[in-house]
From TrEMBL:
Residues 53-111 are annotated as: Disordered. The lineage of its organism: Bacteria, Bacillati, Actinomycetota, Actinomycetes, Actinopolysporales. Pfam families: DUF8129. This is DUF8129 domain-containing protein. Residues 2-59 form the DUF8129 domain.
Length: 111
């Protein structure tokens, strides 16, 4: 029987995303994750983050909704810069394509 963790894909999450995901857990759920971490990877930075959040809950903090549609570690995708085309550069003063018949190596358009 496999253990059901309160955080989907927990074992694949980077530390930076885990910080945001554990905010929505209550003490019981957090203890489940701590036990899983100790029994499997036992990563010190992760355990410090988990036990730190557990201490916050014990001191009166409340779980907050973690309604992220996109994980915090996913960068937004945007296109920028110039469009790339398969066409070679054109115009005077630009190098010619390979295989020119000029002896100078500069091509006929540079004379």
């Amino acid at each position: 029987m496999t253990e059901q963790l309160p955080i989907p894909d927990y074992d694949e999450l980077p530390l930076s995303a885990l910080q945001h995901r554990i905010r929505s857990l209550d003490e019981d759920e957090l203890n489940t994750v701590i036990e899983h971490e100790r029994a499997h990877a036992n990563r010190t930075p992760v355990l410090e983050q988990l036990t730190g959040r557990l201490e916050e809950l014990r001191q009166g903090a409340s779980p907050t909704s973690g309604g992220e549609e996109e994980p915090a570690d996913t960068p937004p995708h945007s296109r920028s810069g110039s469009e790339v085309t398969p066409e070679p550069p054109r115009g005077k003063g630009r190098p010619t394509m390979h295989g020119t018949s000029s002896r100078s190596g500069y091509g006929i358009e540079h004379r």
